[in-house]
Amino acid sequence: PPAAPPPQDFSLGDPETRKITATMARLTNALLLGCCCGAAALVAPRGHGRVRLAPRMVAQPPVRSASAPSVWAPNSWTEKEVKQPPKYPDEGAVQDTIDELKGSAPLVFAGEVRDLHEALAKATAGNGFLLMGGDCAESFNEFSVDHVRDTFRVILQQALILTFGGSMPVIKVGRMAGQFAKPRSEPDEVRDGVALPSYRGDNINGEDFTPESRIHDPRRMLRAYHQSAQTLNILRAFATGGYADMSRLHAWNLDFVEKSEQGSQYRALGRQIDESLRF
């Protein structure tokens, strides 16, 4: 078995370094996004001012069981146990939706998947930090370019702080463009003695507490597909069109923190990074 990971060491030396690190922690909390860091932990080497990221665990390849299929296929999921499957009243509508989706363009392309695989492999070896952020569940009614942009720039801000503090590349993964389903603890929701199917996310049924809204509708998958395609197009435009460039780090501040203490701390950190880039 692998050795137990070493204990985290947060002794940061001089008071100025401790102040910077505390500021980073407050900023990260203020950004209101969770991050996943299973591959690495923040460790500060004694006698050095900068915080670095050191690997805590290297991922082991999964062990394939004898019953596992050797080749993946789009319908491989049908061989698995599904705990909370939708209950569609019209199987013909389900098949029509599947046929239409089969003829649609892929949302993510093979080259993008390969790039992510390579980046994640570096993170498992301790040479990168994985940052994941986004909504618990996306909504049809809340979709807008501004909402996608704001989520994107919050992730950029967190990645900037982690990169500056850890001196390590950050792999940014957005919980976006397809996060429409919600597992529920109970199959039904009861209000004032009336029981209706639980809201399972916009991908399956509606949130309004009416019999019509709570029907599981396969056509909602088509709307989710088209909204996901738009979201990815917006993200690709921002990522490749200059918005994500480090020189625009001061433009990433959200309005609700711009005049706050956290906003001031972020601007101070941004000035430090500007000076480093100019050097």
UniProtKB/TrEMBL annotation:
One of its GO terms (biological process) is chorismate biosynthetic process. Mn(2+) binds at residue 136. Binds 1 divalent cation per subunit. The enzyme is active with manganese, cobalt or cadmium ions. The keyword Amino-acid biosynthesis applies. The lineage of its organism: Eukaryota, Sar, Stramenopiles, Ochrophyta, Pinguiophyceae. It is an enzyme of class 2 (transferase). Pathway: Metabolic intermediate biosynthesis; chorismate biosynthesis; chorismate from D-erythrose 4-phosphate and phosphoenolpyruvate: step 1/7. This is Phospho-2-dehydro-3-deoxyheptonate aldolase. Its cofactor is Mn(2+); Co(2+); Cd(2+). InterPro entries: Aldolase_TIM, DAHP_synth_2. Its EC number is 2.5.1.54. It catalyses: D-erythrose 4-phosphate + phosphoenolpyruvate + H2O = 7-phospho-2-dehydro-3-deoxy-D-arabino-heptonate + phosphate. Phosphoenolpyruvate binds at residue 175. Keywords: Amino-acid biosynthesis, Aromatic amino acid biosynthesis, Cadmium, Cobalt, Manganese, Transferase. Pfam families: DAHP_synth_2. One of its GO terms (molecular function) is 3-deoxy-7-phosphoheptulonate synthase activity. Belongs to the class-II DAHP synthase family.
